[in-house]
Amino acid sequence: METRTERRTGVGLSRRTLLAGTAAAAGASAISWKVIAEQIETLKKEGWEANPVACKVCGGGCGLIIMKKTGVKPSLATVRVFPNPTHPQRGMCGRASQAAMLWASPYRLKKPLKRVGARGEGKFKEVSWDEALDGIAKQLKPIVEKYGESSVVYTSHTLSGIQKWASFTLGTINQIGHEATCNTAGNAGRILAFGKKYQGKNKIDPDYDHASVIMLVGRSINCPMGVAHRLVEAKDRGAKVIFVNPWQPDPALGTADWIPVVPGTDGALIFSMLQVMIREKLYDAEFLARQTNAAYLVSSDDGHPITKAELTGTDSDADKALYAMRTKAGTVVFRGVKTEKVTDPATGKEKEVQSFIENASDVPELEWKGELKTKAGAVIPVKTVFTAYAEEASKYEPAAAAKITGIAADRIVRLARLMATKKGVFEDNWYSSRNGNDVELCHLLCAANAFIGNVDQQGGLCVEEGSGLTSSAIKFDGKTKTCTAPNGTTWEITNTLRADHAYFPEAPGSFFALQKELEEEKPYPVKALFVTASNLLQREANTDRMRKMLMKFDLVVVQDVMPQETCDYADYVLPATMFLEKGGVTGIEFAREMGGAIQRNAPGLPIPDGNESRDDLFPLLEVIRRAWPERAARLGYTKECKTNADFRKWNKTLSEGYGLPKLMADLEAKDPEKAKAVKESLDANGWALVKPKAYGTYPYKKPFDTPTGKMEIYAFWPYLKANRKGVPGLPAWEPVKAYTLPSKPNEFYMVSGKNLQGNSGLGMFGPGSHANSERRAVMNPDDASRLGVKENALLEIRAIDTGFTEKSRVHLSYRIKQGCLHMPGFSGGTRSKLLRAMSPETADWMEEGVNPNWFATGYASPVFGPLANNGSVSVKVLSD
To answer: By its UniProt entry, which InterPro entries does this protein fall under (predicted)?
Structure first.
């Protein structure tokens, strides 16, 4: 069936899908950037001004140009959106193309709203800002007095940094990001392989601009468009692009290969490829030996890393951080990382520098298994990390893996040989929480690049250069429980156990974990919630659970641009400004050539007439000032700002000594010519390259942030603390635990995903999303024929594990593997009663289709807490 599926990927594609998918993905390469640049220049001559901005319709941050006709009031007739043709992250998807329409949308929240019905009914009345802020402060203050500051929780997906100004100022540790169904598993994989400093979604990434083969496992590249553009350029250059996914993503249409794997079996596929590489000696032995911990020794019994302290019987922290390595001379040596203070010749200031504790003459031995004797005489069975991998990979001979993954054995062999011989790169993942075994998969994908030896080299998995741009923040010291504001003011936070960390100690943000606190007040009660720019009911796996959680808070405040579903559960809804109304300078997240670059954001659009939206931090701080003036004074916020302009003027005081002024001052001191070039590029293009990528740095010259400093294909990090024991050092594949596997003829894997036409919390409200974004469930035509399902038939879909049942029309396409239903996220299934009250017509089309998180179990992996947003469902035909 695999061959037939691949041959027939074009069957069942609607004209809308072809136009919106293929054109949007491939068009990035096909469109002449020279033509776009000429269009922009023509408009300038006709009296239009060009305003650069990083797009934030989703979290990608691609470079746009907002063209605005000078001398007239901005409107849809006088504002146009273009991709910035010279930008290192250029490209414009369906989400960005409707940015101006979202800015001018009649559905935007315009005034503060106060709930007048029962929570969840979506009944509100408009109130003044004073009434809303006074009301929130009045409800919040007794909650804090009775339950303490930690009873107040802030959550956001993309604006956690803004919320922390308020949460720390109030005195709560509970700013809890909403990442569990997005980047948590990818972050965890990078922590395990490279360390916490490298966990960010863009800190480690493939060098698409020089790659020969790119394998994307579970990644669609529907965000960011700047990367999709680089991917298409790579294909035009002759690179081979391979998508491993039960659903064929938009960028896979055309010349890319699509490997329709059985959901949740990706890890078995990668281990099978490693088995071929090991068996045929295709791996890069030198890289593994010198730059990873492959020759380090672990216990054959429980897998823990062997240290000098264990073998010598000392209790020294220094010896606990020295790890045993086997040499080809038959000896055991100890390696680690040291930190020294040196004087920076460019600045004359003292700085810390890390380097390896190792002797280059010691030749690591990869394959070894034996015993070591401690000083006390105990015998420890040990093996090298490489041996542990070889043993695990031996379970996945291609013939055995084919039965698990649905991918033919000979194809697995060809893929392994291709990746090894062509020095390919495995993409390390972003939107990666799917099946409950994703942490191990993301770590394994990083490790697979080590077997190829393609790390921080051209065309490999690389560390993106930093630009040196800094931002101000409240600094929190967990040891002393002390917060320090940029102005030097300090204060203590009494309870430093973040609520979700009571259950998932290393979670970047697992908001769902508050269920225990809400139901049982363990380990402490949480009573008030501030939600900023996050649609929890579209983001959260197991939507019903989230609804029940929202009902239990004493106070819920939602800040947003649109009347999204979470607003129905709020006591107050506060209208927020959007990115086209804001400015500043930020780093570019996915820059071409992996360089460190910066972006000027100066879109130049005002808040529309009649709209009273405020910047997100403004009302958050104003609530604190009204309830506790002395706490707001910690930041120097002592007087009410009456307008956004007033607040922005005050807000600049928080960033004094940071940002662009500091970067330019540093560049002037080190390299005046470079500083001049950066300024000229910012002024002329809206962006500037600050630091080109220096390949071959990590871990060749500088250690990673791992316990060994090496790239850790076998993570030692979990063994440093007892509360991390749920994470394995060796990222072995395990079958799906997150949901019951489908077994009956009418049962399917539910496969979630996104597209680049409209899938985002903001973008889904746009007219482009209405026209182009698929909202229905998608079924393979062969499954449909078997069950008697016709195109656009009405189905009843039932979650096998939870029993949740909903209806959806169905689209038939060979883009989904047999036995699976694809359900696009952030596209359909909206149930906003507030939106229905504002615009029944809009609510009608936004309610069409499905929200995949309805059917997910809400299973969370240990320690990091990523949620699985795939699941299993049964279907029944209701009508044609």
So the answer is: Asp_de-COase-like_dom_sf, Mopterin_OxRdtase, Prok_Mopterin_Oxidored, TAT_signal
| Residue 767 backbone phi and psi in degrees, to 5 | -65, -30
Q: What is the pLDDT of residues 225-250, one digit of tens each?
A: 899 989 989 999 999 999 999 999 98
Asked if residues 159 and 532 have their Cβ atoms less than 8 Å apart, the reply is: yes
35, 647, 724 from 63: Cα distances, Å? 17, 27, 39
| Contact (CB, 8 A) for 526 and 499 | yes
Q: DSSP string spanning 445-499?
A: HHHHHHHHT-BSSTTSEEEPPP--------EEETTTTEEE-TTS-EEE-S----G
Structure tokens at 500: 């979700």
Strands 482-484 and 475-477, by their bridges, are antiparallel
Residue 547 above 60 pLDDT? Answer: yes
DSSP-assigned beta bridge partners for residue 178: 510
65, pLDDT greater than 70 = yes
> Which amino acid appears at position 527 of this protein?
K
* Lowest model confidence (mean pLDDT) among 479-483, 710-714, 754-758, 763-767: 754-758
- Does 692 map to a domain? no
Q: Which domain CATH number covers 802? A: 2.40.40.20
CA distance 729 to 726: 10
Structural domain containing residue 746: 735-879
- R_g over Cα of the chain: 27
Contacts 24+ apart (CB under 8 A), 648-653: 648/615, 651/615, 651/617, 653/487
Work out how many domains the chain is built from and give that number: 1
Does residue 817 fall inside a structural domain? yes
Q: What DSSP designation does 243 have?
A: E
Q: Tell me which residue has tokens 């293009």.
A: 685
Residue 335's SS3 state is strand
Q: Within 10 Å of residue 480's Cβ, how many Cβ atoms?
A: 11
Whether 430 is covered by a domain: the verdict is no
- Give the number of other CB atoms < 10 A from CB of residue 305: 25
Domain assignment present for residue 834? The answer is yes
| Cβ count within 10 A of residue 281 | 8
Using alpha carbons only, give the angle 860, 861, 867 rounded to the nearest 5 degrees.
40
